[in-house]
Design brief:
- With 330 residues, the chain is α+β, with helices and mostly antiparallel strands.
- The chain has helices at residues 2-21, 33-36, 45-48, 73-77, 79-85, 88-117, 138-149, 164-192; strands at residues 202-204, 208-213, 216-225, 231-245, 251-259, 269-270, 276-281, 302-311, 317-323, 328-329.
- The chain has 2 domains: 84-193, Helix Hairpins (Orthogonal Bundle), CATH 1.10.287.70; 196-323, G protein-activated inward rectifier potassium channel 1 (Immunoglobulin-like), CATH 2.60.40.
- The protein is 34% helix and 21% strand.
- Strands 1, 2, 3, 7 and 10 form a 5-stranded mixed β-sheet that branches. Strands 4, 5, 6, 8 and 9 form a 5-stranded antiparallel β-sheet that branches.
- The radius of gyration is 36 Å and the shape is elongated.
Length: 330
C-alpha cells in the first residue's frame, strides 16, 4: 500500500511538472508590420479573417441591392430603361413573348372575322367572296397575321375589298406592328451597344502606392488601355468610401469624400495612349492627412476610381469603376 501511494505521488508530481513546464502554443494572427504594435494582443482570429463587404466589386459593379422598394410602379413608368437593365435571358424571353402574343392576338381576330362572316362554311364555294382568301382555320389565320405584321406577303392569303372590317384591322395591325418593331428592336440595339465590356480592356494597377514624389507625399496608382481604339475625352476622379461621425454625434455610413487627382491643375483629363500614373497629394486638404502609417492598415475604407470617356469606335459615353480598397502599400 505504501509503495502504491508513493508511486501515485510520483506520477502526480511528474504530470504537474509537465503541465507547468509545457509551453502553450499561441498562434498570433498574421498582420501587417505597421499594425502589429498598435493592435491589442487579445485580438481574435475571427476578427482578422472576417469578410468585409465591398461597396464596389472587383469587376467594377456596385455591390448595392435595393430592398423594401414599395413604389415598384415607378419602374413601369420608364419601361424602356427597365427592359434595357434586365438580364439577357429575361430580355430575350420578353422579346419572343411580345411578338408571339401580338401574332396570336391578331390571328384570333382574323379568325373571328372569318367565323362571324361565315367564311368557314363556304370554304369550297367558288361563288363566295371571303374576307381573306384561303383562310380555312385558326392556323391559317395565325400565319396570315405573321405575314401581315412582318410584311412577308407570300401571296397565297390575300384580303379582299369586300371586307371593310378586315381593312380596318389590317391598318391597325400594320401601325401597331411598326410600333412594336421600333420598341423591341430599339431596346435590343441599345442593350447590345452598351459599352459595359469596354471595361475589360481598361486595367488598373494591382496595388496603390504611398511614397514621396517631388518632395511631396503622394498616393499613386496606374491605369492603362489595352485597345488600339482609345477613350476620347477621358477624365478620372476618385472617391473615398468611409463611415463618418460628425461633431454633433451623427453617424454617416458609407460617406463619400472626394480625392483630388488633379482637378485644379487639369491632370484629371487624360490622353490615355500609354499607361499613366495618377497621383494624389496627401496635404491638409486630403482625407488621408490625419491617418498615420500605422493606422492605415486598420482603417475600414475603400477607394473607388471612376474613369469616364467616349468610346472611339461607337461614340458612346462609358464609365469604368476601379477598385483600390485594401490594396495600398506604404
Amino acid at each position: 500500500a505504501r509503495l502504491t501511494q508513493k508511486l501515485a505521488n510520483v506520477l502526480e508530481g511528474d504530470s504537474m511538472d509537465q503541465d507547468v513546464e509545457s509551453p502553450v502554443a499561441i498562434h498570433q494572427p498574421k498582420l501587417p508590420k505597421q499594425a502589429r504594435d498598435d493592435l491589442p494582443r487579445h485580438i481574435s482570429r475571427d476578427r482578422t479573417k472576417r469578410k468585409i463587404q465591398r461597396y464596389v466589386r472587383k469587376d467594377g459593379k456596385c455591390n448595392v441591392h435595393h430592398g423594401n422598394v414599395r413604389e415598384t410602379y415607378r419602374y413601369l413608368t420608364d419601361i424602356f430603361t427597365t427592359l434595357v437593365d434586365l438580364k439577357w435571358r429575361f430580355n430575350l424571353l420578353i422579346f419572343v413573348m411580345v411578338y408571339t402574343v401580338t401574332w396570336l392576338f391578331f390571328g384570333m381576330i382574323w379568325w373571328l372575322i372569318a367565323y362571324i362572316r361565315g367564311d368557314m362554311d363556304h370554304i369550297e364555294d367558288p361563288s363566295w367572296t371571303p374576307c381573306v382568301t384561303n383562310l380555312n382555320g385558326f392556323v391559317s389565320a395565325f400565319l396570315f397575321s405573321i405575314e401581315t405584321e412582318t410584311t412577308i406577303g407570300y401571296g397565297y392569303r390575300v384580303i379582299t375589298d369586300k371586307c371593310p372590317e378586315g381593312i380596318i384591322l389590317l391598318l391597325i395591325q400594320s401601325v401597331l406592328g411598326s410600333i412594336v418593331n421600333a420598341f423591341m428592336v430599339g431596346c435590343m440595339f441599345v442593350k447590345i451597344s452598351q459599352p459595359k465590356k469596354r471595361a475589360e480592356t481598361l486595367v488598373f494597377s494591382t496595388h496603390a502606392v504611398i511614397s514621396m514624389r517631388d518632395g511631396k507625399l503622394c498616393l499613386m496608382f496606374r491605369v492603362g488601355d489595352l485597345r488600339n481604339s482609345h477613350i476620347v475625352e477621358a477624365s478620372i476622379r476618385a472617391k473615398l468610401i468611409k463611415s463618418k461621425q460628425t461633431s454633433e454625434g451623427e453617424f454617416i455610413p458609407l460617406n463619400q469624400t472626394d480625392i483630388n487627382v488633379g482637378y485644379y491643375t487639369g491632370d484629371d483629363r487624360l490622353f490615355l495612349v500609354s499607361p499613366l500614373i495618377i497621383s494624389h497629394e496627401i496635404n491638409q486638404q486630403s482625407p488621408f492627412w490625419e491617418i498615420s502609417k500605422a493606422q492605415l492598415p486598420k482603417e475600414e475604407l475603400e477607394i473607388v476610381v471612376i474613369l469616364e470617356g467616349m468610346v472611339e469606335a461607337t461614340g458612346k459615353m462609358c464609365s469604368i469603376l476601379g477598385w483600390l480598397w485594401d490594396r495600398c502599400s506604404c
